[in-house]
Amino acid sequence: MTQDSSRKLLNRRKISEKARAFAAVLLLSLASAPLQAQQVAMKTADEKSQRTLFMQAAREYLGTPYRTGGTDRSGMDCSGLVYRAALDGLGAEVPRTARSLAAAAERIDDGALEGGDLVFFNTTGTISHVGIYLGGGTFIHSASDGPRTGVIVSSLSEAYWKRTYVFAGRILSPEGIKIPTEPGETAPAVNPFPFTGNLGFRINTTANALWDLWPGEIPLRGASLGAEAQWVNGSNLYPGAGFGVSWDERDSALSVPLYLSLTGMRGFRFFIGTQLHVIADRGLNKDPQFPGILGGSWTSKPTKVFGQNLRFYQGVEYSWFPDETFGQGFRFSTGITVTFDI
Question: Where are the beta strands (DSSP E) in the chain?
């Protein structure tokens, strides 16, 4: 074999070895590509499952009663639901109050809302309520008052939530994920009671029967009709002022009470004021005095009757004249309150 022939053969061998090496690398790359793609897909799926797990964990508590400070099935408040959903779904602990969640969350534009983001509300003059956004304008939360309390699904378009909504916050990475709302999970149109107006005022009109258990007397002793305006926006206590007219057969007294009141979200109310006595038995001093009437009352949650919010009213009060000492002014009042929110 000549020297030229040996060189040609050696070159062919080198080219063949390079070709085989290149083919091996190519085959290895092609074989590893599906594995790499699978790993990427698994990682992506795992990342995207965080919001899903978070929302699904929250849904597991639908119907749980409301309990201040609660974080389990026996009862939970709004931030307790967020805390429990994060713990169950993600194995992570998040801040425990609505205000601390608002401080920790990244504030985002409403148009960027995704399922698993948080929505914050001002119901007491500051950030006081939080829910988990589900997509489609709905959110899951634990409501403290209303026809349905506890963990429910509501809509951001409802009058109350639309008025008290402040901003959206993010505690999970964005994923573009949304979960449709299931039929039957939409909250009632008025949620929660007590307030559904826009200006912050509530007008109560109450018709009562006056009665007592005075020995030797007929229990029914008269009737009263009153109207009261309350400021119910941005507070858990509602200051109010009212007036009315009452007839008390026991004193043969026709009176006009004028009073100030303070009412809680649960319907318990305290009032104090004076009375203008138009007529009364002889011997009774009709001069106004303060206080001339004071008492407390409770009203129930509303029931819709012919489109009106009717509430049961039960009160106890003391109404007296100057220099009266025999205690006959102690009486009960039972009736119906019609409520208008404006």
Answer: 71-72, 75-76, 106-108, 118-122, 127-135, 138-143, 150-155, 165-170, 201-211, 220-231, 237-248, 253-264, 268-279, 293-299, 303-305, 308-319, 330-341
DSSP run (H or E) holding 84: helix 78-90
What are the catalytic residues? 78, 129, 141
Residue written as token pair 């053969």: 9
Global confidence as pTM: 0.48
Distance of CA 3 to the CA centre of its chain: 95
In the chain, the domains with their CATH numbers are 58-170 (3.90.1720.10), 201-341 (2.40.160.20)
Contact call for residues 229 and 203 (beta carbons, < 8 A) = yes
Q: At what angle do helices 78-90 and 3-59 cross, to 10 degrees?
A: 150
Reported as a single tens digit per residue, the pLDDT across 166-199 is 999 999 888 765 444 444 444 333 333 345 556 7
**Distance between CA atoms of 102 and 165, rounded to whole angstroms?**
13
pLDDT of 220 strictly over 90: yes
